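Format notes (please read before filing issues)

Several people have asked whether sequences and structure tokens are stored in separate files. They are not. Every record keeps both together, in the order shown below: the sequence lines, then the token lines. Line labels are part of the format and must not be stripped during preprocessing.
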Amino acid sequence: MVLGVSDPALQIALLPIMMLFGGVLVIQTLASLLSWFRKRDPLANLWKRLAVAIPIIAAILISVEIGPLGWGFLVGIFMLIGYREYCSGTEFGDATMRKVTTAVLLLLIAAGMTHDKTMFGWAGEHGQGWLSLGAMLAIMLLWLVPVIRDKAEGASADLGRAFVGFALCWMFIHGSFLMHLENGSGAIIFTFLVVSMGDSGALMVGRLIGKHPFRPVISPKKTWEGAIGGIFIGALCGWFGRSLLPQLSDIEVIGVAVFVAIIAATGDLALSTLKRDLGVKDWSNALPGHGGILDRVDSFIFGAPACYWALMML
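Then the structure lines:
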């Protein structure tokens, strides 16, 4: 048992995570000391980001250690906050459609927390039945709202915003069901490893050698060099974390890591597309230095279902 942790995947990941954050703190402290004579610490925003990131990562690790109940609850809370941010950012004010979506999401949250205890035959071993049921219920019930009202005006716009909002949350809730796969906690940490390091790698490579714009309208600062570098670094970190998924061969791990890194990168761009259309920089200011919940989990929203279904098919 490592530091009182019983989960095998956390035992593998805990010490490297602590060493990584320790290294970041040391480097940032030294850099701040070197700039003490300046009126403003150029790394002040980074300190703010770390002050938010560390408790969140601690909550993630603790919830994974608790198991499906703890992890499913944390994902559910993040998802509901993210849905509220989406509704606020898109000015989606249809109360009935929002209540319908929330009801279906609560069902999926409960399913993600308790699937290992209920094990309905139709739900499948890994909870895929719950995901299918949730999608069907949301589509049917949301579409019934204008029908019951006998109202056609504005129905396309309202249904469009309702479906996109549910789709984002439906993809996000896959993160909860990762726990119900073989070596589920390892799958969760593996997904975070590939997604977070891919994001960081893209930012780092883009700033160092980025010259060619990738999607200048949607995200002007992103470059082809950063996008390719992020995918490479994310996949490489996934390979280094191959012990988290011992049921896969090395080739399978690399394949899953590359696939997840590519799909996760599209998540960032997908949410940026919406923000660019809405004319907003962040979805909210819920996380100082980070923006909103959706700003932090945009890549995970796409990366989680990518990893879930890839592991389901292997």
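For reference, the curators noted about this record: The chain has eleven helices and two strands. The chain has one domain: 68-313.
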